[in-house]
Amino acid sequence: MERRAFVANLAGIAAAGMIGRRLWAESRYLAATPTPINVWKSSTCACCAKWVEHMEANGFEAIIRHEEDMEKMKDKLGVPSGVRSCHTARLEGYLIEGHVPASDIRRLLAERPKTAGLAVPEMPSHTPGMAPPGADPGNFDVLAFKSAGSTRTSARH
Fold first, then answer.
1. CB 63 within 8 A of CB 38
2. Are residues 53 and 99 in the same domain?
3. What predicted TM-score, i.e. pTM, was given to this entire model?
4. For the segment 22-65, what is each residue's pLDDT rounded down to a tens digit?
5. Is 27 in the same domain as 91?
6. Around Cβ 75, how many Cβ atoms within 10 Å?
7. Do 109 and 35 meet the contact criterion of CB atoms below 8 Å apart?
8. CA distances from 54 to 45, 60, 147, 155 (A)
9. Are residues 24 and 81 in the same domain?
10. Alpha carbon distances (Å) from 136 to 46, 70, 124, 156
11. Residue-range definition of the domain harbouring residue 3
């Protein structure tokens, strides 16, 4: 019986190793696959383009939609007026308004809270895409918002 137990344990260890290697390989594939994000912005907005660069540097694939009447587009998408900024994005059922850091969007996607989206209202000067060259983003809040317009602080930077 000891030999059978030894062989069974050895088979279990081998199977666990194969499963672990497969999960590791799948996680590497998933990490290497960019997350698509639709971005509506004016064709001339430089800070929006810099935010897109921030997103792409952090594993997102931006699908740019140039829109010159952003207010009309925000109305159509359902962005409450109190959280609006210069550009709007949508991914996996959530709205992203303004210069929200990629890390906060990753957390949103991981946690899946019941919210319409995240926003950095207006255009704070030290957000991703707005911070001066070489400066770290900081000193702003990210808000989670509901479709009706209510907000709560989601993150402080």
1. yes
2. yes
3. 0.79
4. 444 444 445 579 999 999 999 999 999 999 999 999 999 999 99
5. no
6. 11
7. yes
8. 15, 9, 26, 18
9. no
10. 18, 28, 13, 14
11. 1-33
